[in-house]
Hints:
Shape: globular
Radius of gyration: 13 Å
CATH topology: Translation Initiation Factor IF3
Strand content: 15-25%
Number of domains: 1
Structural class: alpha+beta
Largest sheet: 4 strands, mixed
CATH superfamily: YhbY-like
Number of strands: 4
Helix content: 25-40%
Number of helices: 3
Distance between the termini: 24 Å
CATH architecture: 2-Layer Sandwich
Amino acid sequence: MKAELSKKQIKFLKAQAHALNPVVRVGQHGLSEALYKELEIALDHHELVKVKVAADDRDARSAMLLDMSQKTKSQVVQSIGSMVVLFRANPKKPVIDLAGADA
Length: 103
């Protein structure tokens, strides 16, 4: 089970995500197995990933966001409009040091 992020860690991750470009895009085919594979690879490699969701309906976007977060065991850092930022720490090869965020 994933540990919840503190407010300081979320603030730190939001600042890190600001300059990122979307790595994964959810298009007309929705949440496919190929999309999940791509998202898994991106989270393993980067830990912090920005995703663009092409869904006009806010409820549909929220449902997709929840589904992506649960299936990838990642945490939602931020969701603004069609952009979503997900975080999942990589225990084998950490990229982002959250210890500095709590200082």
